[in-house]
Every structure is written in C-alpha cells, then in structure tokens.
Queue: 4 jobs
Job 1
Amino acid sequence: MLHVGLTGGLGSGKSTVGLMLAQRGAYLLQADEIARELMQPGEAVYNSIMQHFGPGVVAADGTLNRAELARIAFAEGRVEELNAIVHPATIAEQAAIIAEIAVDDPTAVVVVESALLFETKHSTAASGAKDEPVAPWRTRFDCIVLVVATKAAKIARYIQRATGDTSPSPARLAELAAEAERRLAQQMPDEEKEKLSDFVVPNDGTLEELEELVDELWPVLEFAARNTV
C-alpha cells in the first residue's frame, strides 16, 4: 500500500487532482469531508467545538454555523484553537479507514487530500505519544503530491466557488478576495511546500493539461504501491 498526501493552498485545485486520481483507481480520503462528518451534532468533535467557542457557533437547527465558526477562526486569529479540536480526530479517523482498506487491498494507492497537511501540529488523538514528532506528516505518508497555482488563480477560484453562477456586487467581490487573502496568509507558501514534496503538479492551465499531468503521475504511484508490499 502507498500512503499519499495530497495538498495545495486554497484554490490550487487539489480536490480536482484528487478526483482525477480516484478515477484512475486511487482510494481518496478528503480531510474536509471527514471533518465535516465529525462536526455533526452528537459527535465528540461537535461537542468540543460548542464548549470551546460557545453557543454562538450553533445554528438554529442545531448544526454548527460554519460561516460564523470560520469568521471566528480566521478573522479573530483562532484557527489553531479550532485545529487542535478537529485535526487529531480527523487524522485518527483517516488512520482507521486506511487500516480497513489495507486488509482488502494491500497494493492500494490511498490518497489523503488535506489543505493543511504540512501546517498541522497535530497527530492522532489516540497516539498516546509523549513527544509529538516535529513533522507529524512524515510518519503518515510515503510521498507527498503538491498542487500549485498562482495567487491570482487561487483567489479567482475561491471567489468562483463562493459565488457560483451569481453576479456578486463589487463590494462582495472585494470581501471575498480579502477573505481569500486572509486564508492564504494562514497557509505555508508554495515555495516552502515544494521543498518538502515529492511531486509538484502545476495547475495554471486547462483541465486537459491537468489530466495529462495526472496521467503521468498515476503509473508512478501505482508502481510504488505494488513495491511496498
């Protein structure tokens, strides 16, 4: 089995690359999706967030008000407080899923998509380790795939994702651009990530060009997975 960490900054297109790899046979675990499930009412992560940040982050229907939680985390500089609750549980859930995959498919390519793969200071919640490794990701992955794009492209994609087919006002566009800037500032620059990565996938062109790059990458990952048994 090959454990692949797939990362990239906000709006880089890492989710698109992840889906392309899944189409070619990889098992794709999306950290955001797993975290979202763990943040549902009744889950331990949900309870911890509500206790830590207060009832103001709970919507009228009892779910977490993700917009308000994001505002507190990014605008008030409390991202790490949120990460300390969510990341360990998410990583532990990933490990459990990967262990199940390993039983059925020992030559699998398992891709974990995570925006903060390098940035997180946390490992599994149940590791029991007294001393956290300096870089927890080093013990979790056999190789790292980094998706990169220009800052302008990242911000444009973030705005497109937030607005969809609507035509936002100039004020709303400026607000979203500022929000993208704040989030990007919380993330490690691509130049630093490239030094830590095994494969770098540039995503400033067309989807067809991105497909070609993934076509080149996939056989390399498959070969590595077969030779890790």
Note: Residues 3 and 141 are 5 Å apart (CA to CA).
Job 2
Amino acid sequence: MKNIRKISILALVLVLALGALSACGGGSSSGSEGGDDSADKTIKVAASPTPHAEILGSISDALAEQGWTLEVVEFEDYVQPNVATTEGDVDANYFQHVPYLDEYNTENGTDLVAVGNVHYEAMGVYKGSKDSFDALADGDKIAVPNDTTNEARALQLLAANGVITLKEGVGLEATKTDIVDNPKNVEIVELEAASIPGALADVALGVINANYALGASLTTDDAVAYEASDSEAAETYVNVIVVNKGNEESEKTKALVAAIQTDAVKKFIEEKYSGAVVAKF
C-alpha cells in the first residue's frame, strides 16, 4: 500500500512538472530571435532631447496609422542610449553619428550598427560682441569646442570664412597648431562645447554645435555662418538610427526607418530648425 501511494505521488509530480514545461514552451514559441515579438507593437527608441526626440515625435502619428506605438526615452548623455540598446531595454537609438558609434563599439566591445541616415547638425558661428567676420579686430577672441572632433570642425568653419588658414590636407583632424595664417591675430579660446552659448558675451564670436545652440534658444538670426551642407563635416557627421547587430531587418527597424526617411520629416526639419539641422536622406 505504501508503494502504491509513493507511485501515485510521483505520478502527480511528473504531471505537474510536464504542465509547467508545456506552459513555458508555449510562452517562448511566440517570440522571435532578437526580442522582436510579433505581438509587440511598441517601438522604443532612446534619443537626445533636441533635436532627436523632437524629430521622432513628428513620426508618432504616421507609425500609429501602421499599428505601431512609438515610445521615446530621452537621455541627456551620450553613453546610456547605447547601453540601453545593447542590453535590449530599447529597440533602437538616435543621437549619434557614425564616427562616434565606431569609437564606442571599439572601446566597449559592442556590436551596434547604423541602419539609416537622418540628419546633420550644422555647426554655426554665433554673434558675441561682434556681429560679423568683417567686424573682427586684432586680438579678438573666438570660442571653439575643446574636444578633438568639434574643434577641428570649428577651425575648418573659420577657415572656410577666411578668418584663418589651415595647413593643406589636415581636414577634420585640424588643431590650433595647424593654423598657418591668422591675419587678424584672433585668439582661439578652447571651451567645453556646452558652455560656449553662455560665454558669448565674453568673446567676439563663438562656434557652437547645433544641439547646444538650439538648447540655448539661439536662432539663425544669431548666427554669422553655418557649415555648408556639402562640407566634409556634413558628410561625415550624419546622425543615424542605431540597433543591435542582427536586428537590422526586423519589422520594428524597417518601420522606424521608413517612417523617418520621408518628405514630411524633411519639411518638419526645415521648418522647425531653419538650417541649423539638415535632413540627410
């Protein structure tokens, strides 16, 4: 009798265990590799507030018409969006250009890939105590970003407008030591990029990244010049949609890229940013 009771208990345990395994198997079979569940109609994107999140907001209705819900997660820094994408907390991110992405992958051993060009943020020269290049006087100060990439862009922009001359061929690796002619003897003042809008009162002119200019409510009326849309910088620093490798052809990725690379988004960018941000698709 004891043996029969033991066998009955064992049989009950096996039945319960098989039931649990069946439930787990049923739950996992509905998903697809890379976490792109066919029943999941939310596209979650990590983005910088300006202009990236604003541009994404302009496609929310278009995606909704196709049955997708767009969720934008805003980040102020340039590291967490990639972390969130790598860890699968978001489906994609939109805040960076390819040179930064390549450097991030190399330094962090990640495998993030660009899947679509969106826009270029034109660096501009903004008015400080002077309102034009012609008004510059001997010894005037011009503020430029102090990080390698953006300082080179700033110097090239000043060179394109005749303020300085750079060594031939230095391109986007230019530094102050590459200045070979400085007819007005301007002083190049290197400052943290984010701080330049607040320092305009202390310099003749300031060279500012578009995101910081927009954040400081600077407009085209405050600018003396912008990088040309066909400049080396414009072609190099296009901001892109980024996903984990393997998700390039997912339904979510295709829907997101298709919704953002449209004439409607081009018009939105042109009207909202007046040349400070330029569509590049």
Note: Residues 42-122+236-279 form a domain with the D-Maltodextrin-Binding Protein; domain 2 fold (CATH 3.40.190.10).
Job 3
Amino acid sequence: MNATARQGMLNIFISTGEVSGDIAAAHLAVALRRRCPDANLYGIGGPRMASAGVRVAFESVHLGVIGISEPLRSLPDLFRSFARTRSLLQGENPDLAILVGYEGLKFLIAWWLRSRGIPTVCYFPPRIWLWHRFARPIARSFDLVLASFPQEKLLYEQAGGNVVFVGHYLRDLLEPVSPEAKERARLHYGIPAQARLIGLLPGSRRQEVHALTPILFQCAALLRKRDSTLQFIVPLAEKRYTTFIKTHIERFSLRDCVGFSDDSHEAMRACDLILTASGTATLEASLLAVPMIIFYRISLLNLAVVRLAQASGLVGYRDIGLPNLLAGKRIVPELHQNEATASELAARAWKLLDEPEAQTLMVKELRSLAMQLGGQGSLDRVVNSILEACSKNGT
C-alpha cells in the first residue's frame, strides 16, 4: 500500500545525540507533519524535536562529543542510552527509523534495528572528509543514506550504498545577507551604525565550549584595546553554557560590549566578522556569506591519533572547516592547535577587518558554495525519500 495513502498510520522513530542533529531533526519533523499530519513521530533527541511534535522519550543531545578520549569517557552514557532506546523500541514497531547525525549511537541503533528487519535511514551521514576509508561499512549499515553534499553521494554510492542526494536544509533557510537585512539585524540588537560587530561562537559541545571560550574572550579583549568601539555578540547554542560564558566576560572586563542572542542566524546577519569553532556554524556563515575565521583545539591525545590517521592515509584532509572542504581550497582562514591562541586569532581578525578587499573576495567565494548544496526544497526531497522507503516496505 502506498505510504501517502496511509499517512495517518505512519510510525517513525527519529534519533540523534547532539545539538545540530536535534535542530535538523526538528526541521524534518515539521516537514513530515505537513505531509503526514497524523504520523506518529517519536524517538530520542532534544527540546527542538519535542517542540516540533516529536514524542521524545528521553534527551540524548548531551552525548555529542569530539575526539578520541572524550568518547571513551562517554561510553557509559552511550550504552545506557542504547539500552533505553532498545527498551523503547521493543514496545513499538516503527515502519522506519531515521538516524540523524552523531555516529556513536547511530550505528548501535542501526545494527540492532536491521537485525529486527526495520528499515533504517541515515540522515547526515558521517563526514567523508574524516571517514572516507570506512565508507563501505558505513554505507552498508543503513538501508538508505540521504546525502547533503555531492561528495557524500559519490563516495557512499561507490561504496555500494543506496544513496539519494537531498542537499542541505539550511539552503532553504539562509541566503547571502543583503545590506538591508544586515541593517535590520543591527537595529534589532541596538548596534550603532558606525560600530563593527564580531560574532563569537565557541561551539555546541561541552568540550568545545570549555576549551575555546577563554581563547575567544581573551581575543575580544585584545581587539578592544585596538578599537574601543568594537562590539561582540554570542549566539548561544545551549543555554546551559550561559553562566560559564558570563564568567569569562567578567574575567576579561567585557560586560559593556558583549551581547547574547538565541537566534544565531539573525546574530550572524548583523556581524561584520565571525570567529567560530568548526562545525555547522561555519556552513551557516557560508550560506549567509559573512566573513569568518575558523579556529580549533583538541587534546594532545586526540591530536596524536589524528596525526597517526593522517600518516596512515585514514584522514586525507588537513583543513577542518566546511567551507574549505567544500571549496577544495582554503577560502577561510583556519587556526589549529598551537596557532589557535588569543593573540594570533586577534591578529588575524584585525587584519581581515582592516582589509575590505580580502572580505569582498571571501564573500564572493562563500556565495559560490551554496550551489553545491542543491536547489531549494531539500526537506521536500528528504520527505519524499522517506515516504518512498516506507512504501517499499509495504507501509
């Protein structure tokens, strides 16, 4: 029976283990509800999924970690979440499972579900820039892989996977900032027309925030010494980091020049420059065509593992920012490890602020990246693929 004919009876499980996955899954849930208003959507994730109409059995967005040592420390949480997920699913019989981002829990759930004959869809598969040598087992762990980038489709298809290129949902939400949109955003935040505004984004995972926040605010203090009119804004990925970040605002005497926003996209529109950790924020800034500098630090243990992986050919890329990976060249400055100091970040930021030609060139390069993410309608393509998979499964 066709899935659309039984849309009120669709029973779909959705899971993620990180903030970016919670956001993507929430957008997907809204799109599914438009097509199948009576579908039963349930799973594990975060508050954004719940607000979008997903029955969230328990929160799992805290599972998102980085590197090697951090995941090892989170293994007890990971296996507890997997055990709770199995208990949840044993009482349900989903027509389909959509596993969004977060590699750790995704594979455990996928293997268990497939052993029970339940179709699995991988939405936002593991990044090929880090996982390309494992493409074959990744592709064969899921019944369907929904690729956001053309490079993903090519690699996972070559690895024998069932892959559909759907593009990226952010392509539907974001477009290069016009002068009018920038002016409206600055008025919204009360930023004087003559002041320059810098966005400070230390990431969404706990390890990132704790490692990178001190660098960002020391950098902001150094920049203020050069220009006392500079203003800063912090789009908060998670409110639980507010107290920690405010501590560093006080530490570097920045109370009078730092604001907060719970709307990261509007905050970015208002900015002249963004200083950001690697992650989804770099893609958002790319689609908005706002100049940025990407910086990142990982632990010495994680660095040693990365170096070993690079030497053995498991990791073939030295850049970490999505705009650079998509462009195939460095169009955005990146500072890694020992380079990622407050003084070096401040020097690079000041240089970019002081060079309008460099900003213009970067904006031009960023604008060209959007075409790689497909045309408008990404979420419609995702929903079509999901409903087709349900139909093939006889639901």
Note: The chain is about 50% helix and 15% strand.
Job 4
Amino acid sequence: MILLQLSAGQGPAECCLAVSKVLKVLLKEAESLQLEVKIIDREAGPEADTLKSVLLNVKGSDALSFAESWHGTIKWLCKSPYRPSHKRKNWFIGGVF
C-alpha cells in the first residue's frame, strides 16, 4: 500500500482545477497498469469540480514505481477558464508519496 497526495498548495483556482484534471489522468493510467486506487480523502477547491488536495491509496505490484512517477512538481498547461484575459497557461501542483 502506497499513499499518494496531489495538492494545489496555496495556488489559485486554476491549480485546483489542475489537481482534478491530473487525478483523472492518474486514475486512467493506474487502471491500465491494473493498480487499485482508492480515494481516502479530498478537499474541494473554490470552483465546481476542483480539488485543493486528494489523498490516494495505491495498491498493486507496481504501486511504488507508479507513485514515484507522480512525485514532485507537476505542470498542467491550460488557459484559465476563470480569468479569460489572464495570459498565464502554466499551472503547478505537487505530488507526494
């Protein structure tokens, strides 16, 4: 069993959106690797369908290497849906196991 956390830290709403988007990608990847992932805890973000933080329990033969691949700073590229005139497209979140 490996615990993995994704967090927007003190980032803006766009970082919270990145956490929810990264979670979807992570879950899809885990499924393809036949890993079992359960959400233990989550903290909602300021906007609908966003997360400030999510804590995951990862089980399976490759759980450690999977968690290692999501450890560190994760860059998510997208225009801000909350501030259309904002020029920034790079949003950063953290992954820790």
Note: The two ends are 11 Å apart (CA to CA).
